[in-house]
Every structure is written in C-alpha cells, then in structure tokens.
Amino acid sequence: MKLCIAAVLLVPCGVAHGDPRYTQSDFGGVGLLQTPTARMAPAGELSVNANRTEPYSRYSFSAQPLDWLEGTFRYTAITNRPYGPESFSGSQSYKDKAVDAKVRLYEESHWLPQVALGMLDLGGTGLFSSEYLVANKRYGEFDFSAGIAWGYLGSRGDFGNPLGALSDRFNERPTAEGSGNFSNGYFRGRPALFGGVAYQTPWAPLSLKLEYEGNDYQNEPRNNHLRQDSPVNLGLVYKVADSVDLSAAWERGNTAMFGITLHTNFVSRKAPVKTYDPPAPKLPAQAPSVAMDQVDWAAVSKRLQDNAGYNVQRIAQRGPELLVYGEQQRYFYSAKALGRASRILDDSVNDQISWFTLVSERYAMPIEETSVPRETFREVVNQREPLQTLHRQTEVNPPSAPAQTLLYTQAPKPLSYGVGLGYKQNVGGPDGLLYQISADLDAEYRFTRNTWWSGLLSVNLLNNYDGFTYDAPSGLPRVRTDLRKYMTSSDVTVPTFQLNHAVRLDQDLYGMVYGGLLESMYAGVGSEVLYRPMGQRWALGADLNYVRQRGFEQDFSLRDYRTVTGHITGYTDLPFNTQGALSVGRYLARDWGATLDLSREFNNGVRIGAWVTRTTASKEAFGEGSFDKGLYLSIPFDELMSLSTMRRANLVWAPLTRDGGARLNRAYSLHTMTDGRDSDLFYRNFEKITE
Question: Which domain of life is it from (predicted)?
Fold first, then answer.
C-alpha cells in the first residue's frame, strides 16, 4: 500500500445539547459498553477504536457504508493466554480477528423503536461469535436499548431458545472455535436479555452509559473464565475534540475499562481549501479575434497543463467545436478540470467556436469526451444563469472520430518520475501489527503514447517485520505466507519493473499486455481485456497471467515456483449506491474459486468495501481462517490535502495472510483506467465546474 505524505484532517462533528450522539462500544460499532444498540452512525462515518478491559485489548475499525448497514473489523489480544507452545510462537499472546455486521430493520418513529439485527465474529474463528436483536427508543436526553442475544453476548442463557419451536437444532449451539468458517450455529443455544441507557448530560462533551449485559463470563474463549461481581456496567464518554472520544467504565463489577475512539465522516466533512492550486483563470470580457491558425497553441497547451492539469496530446477543430485530446494528471474531480480548461479555451479562441470538448485519454486510449456549450458556461460562471442550465446542456459521450482539422500536436515528454513515502502493513497472527515505512522512487518512460515502462525502487526506512516470528503452517504452495522473508531479506528492493502496452480495440473494448516484475513476489507476463459500454452500469473483463515466484530480495532473481492464474470478472452497479464485482478463476496456489467484492463509493470518491473468496482449497489446507476475506478503505488524497491530486490512499485490513484465494497484485487494471466511462462521479460533483 503506497501513501504520500499527508496530514489526515479529522472532521468536525460537534454536538449541540440535546442532539443524539452515538458512540462506540467496547467491541467497535455503535453501542453502549459490552452491549450493542440499534443506533447507526451517519453514512460515511469511520471510527478507529482501542480499549483495554483485563484480560482483553481490543482494536477495531468501524465503517458506515450505508444508513442502515454497519461493518466492523476487530482485532483482540487475549493477554493472559499464549498463542501456542513457546517453541511455536514465542511469548506472543493469543490474537483473534473478527468481522461484525449490523443491519437496521426499522427506523425509529414517534411510537415505535428503532430495531437492528447484528452478528459478531461473522465468518471468523467463532471465539466471540454472537447474534442479537435489539431495539432503541429515545426520550429527551435518554436513549434506552433492550435486546436478546445468542452466543457470546448471551452466554448467561437466561431461558430456552424461542426458536426451538421451529426446530430442535436451535436448542444446542455447536462450538466452532478456530474454524474461521461461516457457522451453522447462528441463533442457536440458550439466549439472554440485555439492555441499557445512554444519557447526554447538560455538559455537551460528556455522556453517561448504564447497561445490563447478558454475558456471565463463565464460557470465555480459551477456557479463560472470569469472575463477574455484577452484570451491570457503568461508563462515561468524554468528547475531547470533534474527532476524539475518551471512554472509561467499571465493568463486571470489578474491572476498569479505558478506551479511545478517533472518528471522521467523509460525507459531511469539508475537504481542505486548495490553497496550493493555481487560481482559476478569469474569463475575458469578450472573445479574442485572432484567427484559429494564428493561435499560439503551444502556449494554450502549456496553460492547459499548468492550470487545468491536462497533458495535451493534440488539439483539433470540428466545425464550431474545439477538441482537446489529453490525459488528466492533477484534478480528482473531472468537472473541476473541465471548468479550468473551458476558461483557458474561452480566453484563447475566437467566437467561431461555440463548443469546447475535452477527450479524456489514458495511455492514448480514448475513454470519453465531455462537451461544454461555451456561451452557457460563460453565463453560469458570471452568475447570469443557474448551474442547472449548464448541467442539462453538458454532454458526456463515447469518443468518436469524425472528420476534423488538426490544429496542434504536442511532442510527448517520455520520462516522468516521483518520490514519496511507502507504507505496508500486516494485521494478523500472533505478531500483532507489522508495518514498513519506505522511501519510494517511481518512474515511467513512454516509448509511444500507449507503450510504456514503469518501475518502483523502494528503500526501507523503518519496519518491525524482523520481529515476525510466526510462519503460519500451510497445506498449499507458499504463495503468500513467505511474507516475512520478502520483507526482511533486503533494505533496497524493486517491487515492480515492467513493460506495458494498452489499446482501445473497439468502441467499447479495451486490451492490455504486460510483462516483467509484476509485484513484490511475482514476475511474469499477462494480458487483460475489458468490455465496458459507455454510460452502462456493468462491464465484463478477463485477465490471464503466467507468473513465477521472485527471489526474497525482490531483485531480478527468480525461484522455482510457477503457475498460470487468471479470472473472468463481472462488474455491476447495485441498489443503494453500491457496486459489486464477481471474479471467477484460478488463483496463485493453483486453487479454483470465486471472489465477491462489494463496495460503496461516496460523492467525494471515498470508497468502503469488503471481499470474500472461496476456492477449492479445503479448510484443512487453507489453515486458520478457512477462506480469504477482508475490508478496505480507499481515500482520495484530494480529501486530505490543500493541493489537488489524483492519488489515493488504499488501506486494507485482511484478518490473515494465507495462501488460499491469493491473487496477483497487478499494477494496472483496465477497469480502473477506464473509470471515466462511468459519468456518475462527474455529475454528482458538477458544481465544481465553476471552481
């Protein structure tokens, strides 16, 4: 995962007295202390939580991709239990990874409570697995919750399972400890009741929590039974800053809890003002009178590069329409780039031109063309027409190639490079959080506009992978679990070094071939094709790769292991502003299977997603975790910095690094390269055309 230097600005989310403020539970996710509630954070909310309640240290990341859906990845250290024999894992304490989910079934009304259904440790090891149904009703400053829980949260087992009336199998809850598989024990066993209340005090930063939990701590994981003097827990949350909450509580009648939560919301927050961007060019009082063949197109091209971020390839005329072909390299929001370019063109050409068309390209592959009516654009910028008028008249179309007059061709600049910081992480196993910070030099050389070399040189600055003592057993070829050797064998590495060629094969068909050092662990050759109709909500792609494992030093040496891997992938938009991708094919360990990826992208480009992979690898061969799964967060740096950029920070949380279901980490994807074919983000941020 590559990150440039950026200060992450956590958002204001101040709370006035009387407004509901929903805080995180000990497990992560909106709740009280040890019990969940039916409340949900606003869509786009992200929270990072850490707390300590002897003998548990819990670290979690919670995300609210939809108003009615909450997801949490949790990492728990059981500090009084070893991971295994000392010869196996040293002195490391036991670590557990889990994914939780909560769905709102009914939103609170005047008379009826809010209701939610949730699951802890969904498809995880099962150590803390639990299911619950909970309701909330708010009265003034008091928010009451009550629910029923099965499994861990309801281990006291107050009464027989009411679902036993449907089937006897609900009366007994099977043990699934360590399986890491989707359980067949949901809602089984004796449940318990729980409930509580949150109180917003007259002092806005302080809220109080009181709860009655359904766990008696006599069935704790790893035979770790704990004494409970009282099922009533009392706590408080103090809002230190708009994005920082401190928590303290007295739990089990005998144990203190302390925690901290960092949170932000990428829907309601405002991105930093772009103080380091060049100012938007002013519109001329009237159009220039210079003839088209007398325009200094080289100067226009330079202004388009410097102010609008377009690396211009050529400029042409088609009747009253001026066309600029180029690649956007600065602005994340294409509407902003289009507005900047339109201002420059309006200041450069005579009134024979009534339309400005920007043809977006990636490595000389035309993606889409966006046309702006010149006069309407001027009227809107000068605030004589509403923005909606320009919105209706602006066109986004598939690129076309009718007869046109070529006005200017810019000589390409073949070499480009950049320096930044790199960051890699691994969460899982007994070693806790493993990380590496590096200094990275990336470079690209274009032999032609659609044939290029790209490479990355990485120098280790700081890492703790040398403390990686646990090499997980595997019943599959070690295609990923040799991670420690790749991270510690050399301080200077070449993660990528490859030759690429991309082309638009037909109106909606794109193709690419590549070869070289494709990622830190694999070298080889491959190809990809993508069919992506303009303006449609779906696409279909396929990739095929022949790869060989690289040497641990990440230089140009190779190891013996080699394989063929590839997938057919379908992409589609789904209800609730979500996107889905289903990939079917062969993985690096020669196992066959499918990967389902579901994500939500907000208007500002922030994307929250999760994936799950099931393959022909058996649970025994796969090892701990049973199958590959994880969460990811992709944040445009444009949301974090005072300078416009198209780069992203990609954060991935995978409970374990295993060999089953492992895919090739390709540097380029045609679906990403052709994102402009989906105009939703352009129209959702159309107001930026005037910036």
Answer: Bacteria
